[in-house]
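Example S7 (structure tokens).
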């Protein structure tokens, strides 16, 4: 079930990006909506689980490591994860680097899923919700380029397949780690989530005007995550020991 949801979220996003990829505003709105959802999942679900563990007081450094790791990955993806993509400068994004950056990003997110007991955990839904806009932009980038064969030595479908399988592969590897390491991996991913969502939400608006649509989309994303939080069963503290 988990693997199917992860793969479907990528395929669905790529499909929508391929057919509606020229609507850049739609991609931006999806990103903002997902950012509101993701930052709420991060603060209400991921971080409480991290800091309720025995190692909680010393895990801040791993959160920071996640933030720094995402900054490094963005040197490869050029900020692809939060919508820094424009058709006029697509030659600046080397598909090989993009593929590596997105794969590492999704692979690391998949590792904590190995110890998730629920089929539809908030953490899983956060990844799924996060995958949709990224995959939308990926589909628009890969399938709406001019002279695709000249700009990339890699077939577009290979990049999509690797991205779709990255989190399931991370989950598979996670089965071989000691479950006691779960808070550390969650802390790293929490840092990644926090960086991506905050960049999307707090990016300067054009001329620094108030963007009511953006604010509304963030509120909707936050509300969806809060509703899920209210109806989600939360085990007692210490469950991740």
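Recovered sequence:
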């Amino acid at each position: 079930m988990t693997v199917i949801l992860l793969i479907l979220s990528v395929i669905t996003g790529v499909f929508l990006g391929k057919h509606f990829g020229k609507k850049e505003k739609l991609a931006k709105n999806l990103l903002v909506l997902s950012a509101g959802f993701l930052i709420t999942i991060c603060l209400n679900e991921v971080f409480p689980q991290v800091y309720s563990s025995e190692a909680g007081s010393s895990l801040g450094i791993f959160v920071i490591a996640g933030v720094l790791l995402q900054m490094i990955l963005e040197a490869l993806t050029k900020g692809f994860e939060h919508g820094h993509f424009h058709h006029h400068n697509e030659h600046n994004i080397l598909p090989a680097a993009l593929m590596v950056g997105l794969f590492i990003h999704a692979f690391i997110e998949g590792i904590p899923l190995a110890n998730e007991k629920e089929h539809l955990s908030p953490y899983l839904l956060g990844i799924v919700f996060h995958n949709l806009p990224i995959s939308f932009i990926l589909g628009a980038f890969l399938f709406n380029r001019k002279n695709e064969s000249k700009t990339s030595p890699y077939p577009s479908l290979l990049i999509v397949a690797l991205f779709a399988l990255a989190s399931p592969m991370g989950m598979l590897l996670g089965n071989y780690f000691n479950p006691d390491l779960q808070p550390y991996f969650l802390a790293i991913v929490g840092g990644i989530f926090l960086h991506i969502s905050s960049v999307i939400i707090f990016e300067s608006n054009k001329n620094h005007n108030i963007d009511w649509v953006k604010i509304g989309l963030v509120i909707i994303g936050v509300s969806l995550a809060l509703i899920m939080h209210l109806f989600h069963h939360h085990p007692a503290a210490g469950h991740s020991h």
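Notes on this example. Residues 237-241 have pLDDT under 50 and may be disordered.
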